[in-house]
Design a protein that fits this description.
Blueprint: H1 3-7, H2 13-18, E1 27-30, H3 37-45, E2 51-55, E3 71-74, H4 81-87, E4 93-99, H5 104-108, H6 134-140, H7 143-152, H8 159-170, H9 178-189, H10 199-221, H11 223-237, E5 238-248, H12 251-263, E6 271-272, E7 278-279, E8 282-284, H13 294-299, E9 307-313
Parallel strand pairs: 1-2, 1-4, 2-3, 4-5
Antiparallel strand pairs: 5-9, 6-7, 8-9
Helix pairs in contact: 7-8, 7-10, 8-9, 11-12
């Protein structure tokens, strides 16, 4: 495997790039460069007059930069896509692709703290140069703040109880590693509540732990706010006929993408013109979301929760 392939295996590669309906001389944006898999596929379909701008805030992704005159790497959070396009004197683009969530590289790098498979510093920052870590959140937020993010971003039903346990435990010892976090929270996340044990119970417990880590990661990286800004920027940047192709992995981000494609805003608020006709800047392509094939899900477990939505600027 190449360095890029080791860094991250692209999900729904052909389907997501097909969804952009690449024009050889078009201008495109990949807001989640990562290992560069999607970017390389876009470049393979561009002609000499086309151009691709790819975003990533993680310094590790720079190791995968493509050596191509038609390519520009932007080391930044994708929330600033509109501002950066203005910086490069780009008024409109022909397509934008986003593969949201966490890359394989982040989960596999034990020292980043994204995975509960390793005992590592409780970090979870996509951008290692700035911002609060997950340890800062767990040890510094109030019990009410912790409960809110666990409920909103992790969708944990017992968010308040988990928050209370975390606050009590941190008074005795700082929760600064993934192992310490699991030791404190896992007893609450593994309650069977009268169900039978065995593999099914273990799977349920793993999902609950994953929700806890997801909630902290989203908070640390301000993922929902960044996604909102990026999607709003995409709507403004896309020229008529331009395509938006986005892969999501959990219900919160998928709901926002679905709403922007249906109504033109992440809240899903439908606006009407003087005659009562629905007004929206985008038109969804296809009636159903695209999901990975059984073969892809088998080869790349990360793809199992993936959903691809595509829309066109009207």
């Amino acid at each position: 495997m190449t360095t890029a392939e080791t860094y991250h295996v692209p999900v729904l590669l052909k389907e997501s790039v097909d969804g952009l309906d690449i024009q050889p001389d078009g201008v495109y944006v990949d807001v989640t460069f990562g290992g560069g898999g999607h970017s390389r596929e876009i470049l393979s379909r561009l002609g000499p007059e086309g151009h691709l701008y790819s975003f990533d805030q993680d310094a590790d992704a720079e190791k995968n930069i493509v050596d191509d005159d038609r390519f520009t790497f932007v080391r930044s959070n994708f929330r600033y896509v509109k501002q950066w396009m203005r910086f490069y004197d780009v008024d409109h683009i022909d397509g934008l692709l986003g593969d949201l969530g966490v890359s394989s590289h982040h989960f596999d790098d034990a020292q980043r703290g994204f995975s509960f498979r390793y005992d590592a510093p409780l970090d979870m920052r996509m951008n290692k140069r700035a911002g609060l870590t997950a340890a800062d959140v767990v040890n510094g937020y109030s019990e009410e703040q912790l409960a809110d993010i666990l409920r909103l971003y992790g969708e944990l039903k017992n968010a308040r109880q988990v928050a209370a346990v975390l606050v009590k435990a941190r008074q005795q010892q700082t929760i600064d590693t993934t192992g310490r976090l699991l030791a404190v929270a896992e007893p609450l996340l593994s309650r069977d509540r009268g169900r039978k044990g065995g593999p099914a119970a273990a799977s349920r417990e793993k999902k609950e732990v994953a929700k806890l880590f997801q909630a902290l990661r989203i908070e640390v990286n301000h993922e929902m706010d960044a996604l909102r800004q990026m999607l709003d920027g995409a709507c403004q940047l896309l020229r008529p006929g331009g395509r938006l192709s986005v892969i999501t992995y959990h219900s919160l981000e998928d709901r926002m993408v679905k709403n922007i494609m249906r109504a033109g805003n992440v809240e899903g608020r439908l606006e009407q013109d003087f005659f009562g006709q629905a007004v929206a800047p985008l038109r969804p392509i296809g009636n159903k979301v695209v999901v990975p094939s059984d073969e892809e899900q088998e080869q790349n477990p990360r793809s199992r929760s993936a959903k691809l939505r595509i829309a066109e600027r009207v």
